[in-house]
Structures are given as structure tokens and as C-alpha cells.
Design goal:
about 20% strand; about 25% helix; 4 strands; globular
């Protein structure tokens, strides 16, 4: 996936963004990168965080919070094939 000549928005979940109503602005970008907890934004927060998901990026952590496992389970459940980065 090329990001050349594309507008890109990088989003994660942050409590301070709630009630800011930035969802439409976030979703207006050509590509939206969701980082770590940005993968599972509840539908009732779409007005604040948007709903578009093109790329997932996350750092590895072990145990029950394993981002790789969460991402795989989420994508498998949704039957989606999206690009994701692990760093």
C-alpha cells in the first residue's frame, strides 16, 4: 500500500479526545492509521474518533494485552484484510 500523495491521519485512543467531535475530520483523510488501543473504538465514540481503519500499527506487548493477538482476533472476526505494522 502506497501512501505517496495521500493525506494520512494517525489516531490512537486518548481520553482527552472524547467529546471533541473530531471523527468527521479524521475520516476525511485518505488513509487512517490506528495505533494500539485505537483498534477497538466503540461505535458510540465514532463522532469523536472516526470509524475509518486502513492501517493498524502497534507495539508488541505480551500476556493478555498482546496487540498482535488482539489484532488477529479482531480482523478474523470482522473478516477484514487490512495492513498492520508491528514495531
Amino acid at each position: 500500500m502506497s501512501l505517496s500523495n495521500k493525506s494520512v491521519c494517525v489516531v490512537s485512543y486518548a481520553k482527552y479526545m472524547e467529546n471533541k467531535k473530531m471523527g468527521k475530520i479524521i475520516d476525511s483523510y485518505d488513509k487512517v492509521v490506528r495505533i494500539n488501543n485505537g483498534i477497538n473504538i466503540p461505535k458510540d465514540l465514532y463522532d469523536d474518533f472516526g470509524s475509518k481503519k486502513d492501517i493498524y500499527a502497534g507495539s508488541f506487548c505480551g500476556g493478555k494485552n498482546n496487540f498482535i493477538l488482539k489484532t488477529y482476533c479482531y480482523l478474523n472476526k470482522k473478516k477484514r484484510e487490512l495492513t498492520y505494522l508491528i514495531f
